[in-house]
Amino acid sequence: MKLAKFIGHFLFFYLAITLSLQAHNNDQFKLNIKEAIDEIVLDGFLDERTWQEADEASGFVQNFPDEGEPATESTKIKTTYDEHNIYIGIYAENSTGKYVVTSLRRDYDRDDNDHVAVFFNPLNDEINGLAFAVSPYNVQWEGNLFGGQWTRDVWDNKWYCETQRNEHYWTAEMAIPFKTLRFNAGEEYWKINFSRRDMSNNEISTWVPVPINFRTSALAFSGNMKWDKPKQSTGSNISLIPYAAIGESKNQEAGTPSETTIRVGGDAKIAITSSLNLDLTVYPDFSQVEVDEQQTNLQRFELFFPERRQFFLENSDLFANFGFSQIRPFFSRRVGLARDTSDNLVENRIIAGARLSGSINSKWRIGAMDIQTENDSRIGVPSRNYGVFALERNVFRRSTMGMIFVNRNDFVNQLESDTTGKVQNYNRVLGFDYNLRSANNKWMGKAFLHKSFTPEVENDDFAHAVWLRYNTRKLRIDYNHEYVGANYNAEVGFVPRSDYYRLQPEIEYRIFPKKGKVNVHSFELRNDWYFDMDLKMLDGSSRLAYDIEFKNSSRFSIASQRTYVFLRNDFDPSGTDGEVLPAGTDYTYYRGGISYRSDQRKYFTYRASVWTGGFYNGTRHYFYGAMQYRLQPYANISVEFEMNRLLFPEPYNDADLYLIGPRLDLSFTDQIFWNTFVQYNSQADNLNINSRFQWRFKPVSDLFLVYTDNYAPTQWEVKNRAIFLKITYWFNV
Length: 733
Hints:
mainly beta; Immunoglobulin-like; 26-stranded antiparallel beta sheet; 14-stranded mixed beta sheet; 4 helices; 42 strands; globular
């Protein structure tokens, strides 16, 4: 009862804040969009009569480093449309004639590349939208906008662009099909903003001013693009994306013969409305997905690896943003991957799946997903069905309330499930979230309550949390508390630990000098404390950090940290299966470290971090280094190195753990790429080679050739290897 009152008080507090804050007024930023009066030839020259008469967005001001000051270089943007596309015309001055473009590969890192971006909010909710960007070398980037300001570049769709580079400026023409966009028919205006990253001046500017403490994609700071005629539905919008793949693999470690695999399948995208999409997949294949970056695990809990499979990525915020990063009721990497009888992570192939996602109207969003995997008796993995349903409602100006239901059913009888103890017949999670976003973006937060349903478990099977952030130019304050019950079990989620309370207060103060070589000084105090049900501390850390960001884009930081750990279970801190520290013991230790990142505009860049200090009952010395050389824009040669030296008293094992990862990334053109990534992990005693050739012969249509090899480096013996050839083609019906 006390817990229910506690949650109720916090929800009331959230609602009170939401209702009391005034809206941010951007009404003076208006851009009229008129239908084109002549044909737009996509060549990047902006020489059509339509462009001469189109309304102009100009007068960009800095978001960083000198908030509110006029941009050093002028940027002008115009818009128009015809029956099929919306067009964006870009004129960007560059007095130096120099550009930073790290690659010709699509979906580059926007932070490290010259570019101009447009942020669309067609639903006018200042929460969800789409973003498109282009570099001076005509490298395209697109992504989903969600949560009011966050972008995710995993969304892939058809649009077109051409650029022209001149001595002191560059121009671009974008053509974005209306069938690519998601909007409500009949709206008189769309929310919109534009941003520019000027690497020569290490400057970020926008059309509608965005405070320095927010991302330029923050939709609270958007102008109005007014249509001369409200845009109507695009009509039929169906895309088919078939694929064919053939591969050869051999597991030398298991001693099994080579296996030839031929796979055929595909996806379909069907627009139910202009803002609601149905995705279907049959026998999807993920052989072209780049391998995970390996990590050294010195924790007692599972590590998080991001989702990379394309089917799960579009509109993924509707499913993935419930809960917190460490309390996720749904984590798509649980689908199509399973543990075999030897507890190895293996593919549990997906037979078919369907996903309905998007906006019903300007207030409601819906997401529904159902996926069926096949039975694989060889590895002891049953056929499984995964279902997810999510519903989200906009409330007040920019906040949302949502619910999620996650269901996993195993197609085994109850007797078999009880006998083996390996699988349970079902697992379900029901959750409710409230997301706070104030009109001026200074207040953000979340509150949620989730309950799991597992056979024969009835008590202490829920999780809840409240997070609140206050963020201004100089000051950021965060408060977070969590509770995860001992029996809370989100099997299709990511919850690495349970049976705890957590408190996580943080504060950051920033100073922006008006002169000198420094853009910003920041001071941060971060606390993170875990308690058991009797409020006895389990883990605790307090970190004090000072960070300097220089005008040339380099950064330096220094930090110290105090850590306390109480072991509930035996644990080997060396990560080498050596002598364990016994359960019931506790440890307090201190560490300190420094980090530096060089000027990111240079062809040669580097990063380094050194930490040293205590670690449980011993000492840990940590070093991380990364170097990259850019042969702009055709090649990137890089290497990352990580070392952990762990020293303990007898009888515990010492350990030297290494991660080494050289990478070669070649862009022959903006359509042909070759990437090779090598990873050596001494903790896993594994050397992985992943080499991937990609030819994008048509928009969103690719040919992949992927080679993967794993070695036991101490004996230089092959563990397993595979090679796959895959072709996909996107065509509209």
